[in-house]
Amino acid sequence: MDASTLKHAAPAATDTNVVAHIDHDGQPGPRRANLGALLKKNPSVFTLALILLVTLTVALINPAFFQLAVLFDIVRACTTLGLFALGVMIVLAAGGIDVSFAAIAALTMYSITKVVMTWFPETHIAVILLAGAVGGTALGVLNGLLVDWLKAPSLIVTIGTQYLYRGILLTFVGTVFFMNVPHAMDNFGKLALARHDTASGLHAILPATVLVLAAASVLTWWLLNKTLMGRAVYAVGGSLAIAERLGYKLRSVHLFVFGYAGFLSGLAGIVHVSSTRLANPFDLVGSELDVIAAVVLGGARITGGHGSVVGSLLGVLLVTLINNVLILAGVPSTWQKVIIGSFIVLAGAVFALQREK
């Protein structure tokens, strides 16, 4: 580059800097541009903003919200939903969708509880969790095989397997509630990481079951960010044609993501029974939309290629706050779905605008 070129290039750079600090003709200034770049890179920031909005609103209306007992209850409510959300997120990141996770959890948790109660009542909780993980993984891998063999949309396949798994549960396994669960599951549900006695004499505990969610979150983050399979998941979700040219095998990705979602669903089922100390084959029905809403609010795209552990957990927290805490602010329960739906539409609009920019 000669001196004359440099002479003419310098003013252009100066002009660009000046324009970046002026907000003429509706052009974004530096703060708006930085905010847009932040949202585009980290969509979960928007989810966090919604959480703060809900939290502050509830706290202003009812200061009793800021109690350790309420926090413990929120964490407890997030555990099963969070395990589901991590599995759904990894499937969405690969460009698929899974709505059979609740049915997998129900079939796994009830079958294992019944077997343990009938034949192996002294089974250790570690063995029960392992059995839940293995059973859930097997059902999830079946989902992946069907998606790969049939070449059908994963939504259609998992709607079918959802009915299949529930039908097997109710027809062949049982419909009787287990009011008493195995001792190991009962003790695990009662195990506390922390205890707090409220002024009114109530005992609040931070359940040890949250450790399962913490471990699953770390494992999911590591798989997505530090392994070749994690790269394959995002590559297939981003562009299948490019992923295949790069050598990624769609079959392997399908088996991995659906198997992993099943693995987390099996764990979630055992955690759910341990927490509620009740094995109900009709439990978890209808939780699918809440989980998918949480993952979408966390920044994952239905079209694939995006999704994060932090974003999904924030989405779970937001949905849990709306479903469980807004009652403290005097908001009728009938408005919960309205608020969640409004947030999803708002989040979708914000994320779409940032992608266009």
Which key features would you list for this structure?
single chain; 357 residues; mainly alpha; 15 helices
Characterise the protein shown here.
The chain is mainly α. The protein contains 15 helices and two strands. The protein has helices at residues 3-20, 30-41, 44-61, 68-93, 101-119, 125-150, 154-173, 183-190, 210-226, 228-238, 240-245, 250-276, 288-297, 309-324, 336-356; strands at residues 192-197, 203-207. A two-stranded antiparallel ribbon has the order 1-2. A hairpin with a 5-residue loop joins β1 (192-197) and β2. The model is unreliable at 1-26 (pLDDT under 50).
Layout of helices and strands:
Elements: H1 3-20, H2 30-41, H3 44-61, H4 68-93, H5 101-119, H6 125-150, H7 154-173, H8 183-190, E1 192-197, E2 203-207, H9 210-226, H10 228-238, H11 240-245, H12 250-276, H13 288-297, H14 309-324, H15 336-356
Antiparallel strand pairs: 1-2
Helix pairs in contact: 3-14, 4-9, 4-10, 4-12, 4-13, 4-14, 5-6, 5-7, 5-12, 6-7, 6-12, 8-12, 9-10, 10-12, 13-14
Number of strands: 2
- Overall body shape: globular
Helical proportion? over 70%
Low-confidence stretches: 1-26
Question: Counting H and I runs of at least 4 residues, what is the number of helices?
Answer: 15
Give the SSE string.
HHHHHHHHEEHHHHHHH
Radius of gyration equals 24 Å
Strand content bin: under 5%
Largest sheet: 2 strands, antiparallel
* Strand numbers in spatial order across the main sheet: 1-2
Q: Which class best fits the helix and strand makeup? A: mainly alpha
Let me know the average pLDDT: 86
**Distance from first to last alpha carbon:** 32 Å
